[in-house]
């Protein structure tokens, strides 16, 4: 087994674990797996799985793209989307602050990319991995991207009740001002 295959299986397994965890969270409101609201051993384990999932997916994408000797226009478009999505996510993380991104700290943010959609980090990651699909031409990358998309959509539904509980009227007003979860003027 080569590094590319290993990174695919690591991403696949960690992504499935995260999806199962979020589904459990959604089914049982007493279990709060997301967002992580306090620094704990469980929170550290959960964040580690998240980072392993993301990093293994990126490693797989890069290793899959390397053998492509000559990039076509589609590969270049994919690479550009990959970079734009990454930058958009980083902008959202910087705007929100890393601690707040993980739900540890409590400032409400509606500036920067949060003016356009309520989940710009997720939007950026989705664009990031859709770009990876285009620059790798890999069916396995499609599978990992779909897992990321499913997970990010589920996270929104797990996070919204918590945001409403934590920020109350401020969050309801924000939802009215910014009705789009992921894509401005679409969804």
UniProtKB/TrEMBL annotation:
Annotated TM spans: 6-26, 47-67, 73-94, 125-158
Localisation: Endomembrane system
GO CC terms: endomembrane system
Membrane topology: Multi-pass membrane protein
Pfam families: PEMT
Keyword Amino-acid biosynthesis attributed: no
Keywords assigned: Membrane, Transmembrane, Transmembrane helix
Signal peptide: none
PANTHER family found in the cross-reference section: BLL3993 PROTEIN
Protein name: DUF1295 domain-containing protein
Species this chain originates from: Halonatronomonas betaini
Lineage: Bacteria, Bacillati, Bacillota, Clostridia, Halanaerobiales
């Amino acid at each position: 087994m080569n590094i590319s295959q290993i990174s695919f299986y690591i991403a696949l397994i960690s992504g499935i674990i995260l999806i199962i965890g979020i589904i459990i969270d959604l089914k049982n409101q007493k279990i709060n797996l997301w967002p992580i609201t306090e620094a704990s051993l469980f929170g550290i384990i959960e964040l580690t799985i998240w980072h392993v999932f993301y990093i293994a997916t990126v490693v797989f994408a890069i290793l899959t793209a390397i053998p492509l000797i000559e990039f076509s226009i589609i590969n270049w478009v994919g690479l550009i989307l990959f970079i734009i999505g990454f930058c958009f996510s980083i902008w959202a993380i910087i705007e929100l602050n890393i601690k707040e991104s993980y739900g540890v700290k409590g400032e409400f943010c509606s500036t920067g990319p949060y003016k356009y959609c309520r989940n710009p980090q997720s939007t950026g990651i989705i664009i990031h991995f859709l770009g990876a699909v285009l620059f790798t031409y890999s069916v396995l990358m499609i599978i990992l991207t779909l897992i990321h998309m499913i997970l990010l959509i589920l996270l929104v539904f797990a996070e919204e009740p918590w945001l409403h509980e934590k920020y109350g009227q401020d969050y309801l007003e924000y939802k009215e001002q910014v009705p789009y979860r992921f894509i401005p003027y679409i969804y």
